[in-house]
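Ops channel
N.P.: pipeline sanity check, posting one input/output pair.
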């Protein structure tokens, strides 16, 4: 995931699921950034992203959740990367109460477009890594 412009919010899109049920789904195109809850409840959400810097200037990324188009207060991850070629993993967990048909989006913005959310390609000795992952568990 890369930003076309600095200091602009973008939604992370999701391509597939490792394990899914009818309680939580990825919305159909063109809204593949939306994770839709098919059941009212309390959920623990664990998020991670792999960052990649492509220049040597200091740059920051902001990542936060949005439910039904509304930013969640006090939820932003801010991380700064400074070196060209640096990779970094950022993560955050949270507990959210949602209603049936609510949707969650993971938003991001960067201060420099040389900072991307970027997975790793497969190698001869390791499988590919996704650019971002999200684990959602119903806890109540």
């Amino acid at each position: 995931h890369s930003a076309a412009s600095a200091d602009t919010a973008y939604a992370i899109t999701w391509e597939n699921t490792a394990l899914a049920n009818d309680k939580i789904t990825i919305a159909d195109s063109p809204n593949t950034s939306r994770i839709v809850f098919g059941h009212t409840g309390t959920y623990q959400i664990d998020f991670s992203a792999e960052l990649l810097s492509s220049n040597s200037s200091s740059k920051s990324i902001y990542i936060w959740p949005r439910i039904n188009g509304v930013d969640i207060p006090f939820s932003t991850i801010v991380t700064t990367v400074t070196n060209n070629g640096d990779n970094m993993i950022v993560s955050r967990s949270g507990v959210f109460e949602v209603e049936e048909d609510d949707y969650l989006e993971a938003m991001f913005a960067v201060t420099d477009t040389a900072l991307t959310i970027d997975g790793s390609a497969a190698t001869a000795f390791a499988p590919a890594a996704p650019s971002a992952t999200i684990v959602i568990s119903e806890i109540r």
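N.P.: looks fine end to end. The two ends are 32 Å apart (CA to CA).
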